[in-house]
Design a protein that fits this description.
mainly alpha; about 0% strand; elongated
């Protein structure tokens, strides 16, 4: 960064730091799954089976964080510059990512319960993911707006498609949070569906595949 806080080209350091936060967050998920203690004639198999909420929380959060990391990485293939505001937004986004293991543990502890405890746990979990999605979208909107930080050679239609994709995802994460107060099952199902949706190739990747296919057909 320059002394005046202007844009620079050192996005590799930002991505490397971000990757470290993702790696720590995703590792902390499994630390929350503690081996059961079986005494006397108890069944270890049953004790392990009773940990199903921990397995579920781990699987969902691993999928979510992994998908967010992949999309974050793909964004940096287009972002060629940075500035102070971008760094600050990225820090806020990573703060949310690093927090995800806590609501995951909360979800595992209270998902088997009934009533308000389960609703609150799912609301905290989905709310955390919704806030993470908001900051991720703001990060992209800031970088892509008026081509502020993205590679100026990028196809404008690709930028528009990505923006629509992220804004829609942010909105659906907020819907998942609202659903937690109506149906925890529907709320978590939507979270899983969103993670699977964002695993699909992005608009830029599909356009590249189409161009390669057309060039192959011409040959």
């Amino acid at each position: 960064m320059s002394a005046g806080g202007g844009p620079d080209n050192d996005t590799a350091r930002i991505e490397a730091f971000s990757d470290g936060v993702f790696a720590i967050a995703i590792t902390l998920l499994v630390i929350e799954i503690r081996p059961p203690h079986v005494e006397g004639g108890g069944s270890l198999t049953e004790a392990l089976a009773h940990l199903w909420p921990s397995y579920l929380g781990y699987a969902i959060s691993f999928l979510v964080i992994g998908t967010v990391w992949a999309n974050h990485h793909n964004r940096f293939r287009l972002i060629s510059r940075s500035d102070h505001q971008f760094l600050f937004l990225n820090v806020l986004f990573l703060m949310c990512v690093a927090f995800i293991p806590f609501p995951t543990a909360l979800l595992a502890d209270y998902l088997p319960s009934t009533g308000g405890y389960r609703t609150t746990a799912v609301a905290v979990y989905t709310g955390t993911l919704a806030v993470t999605a908001v900051f991720f979208t703001l990060l992209w909107l800031y970088a892509a707006g008026n081509r502020r930080l993205v590679d100026r050679r990028t196809d404008p239609s690709v930028l528009r498609a990505m923006t629509r994709r992220f804004v829609l995802g942010m909105f659906l994460y907020i819907v998942a949070f609202a659903l937690a107060f109506v149906s925890v099952t529907a709320s978590l199902a939507l979270i899983v569906a969103l993670a699977l949706l964002f695993v699909l190739p992005e608009p830029g990747d599909r356009s590249k595949e189409n161009r390669r296919a057309r060039r192959g057909a011409v040959r």
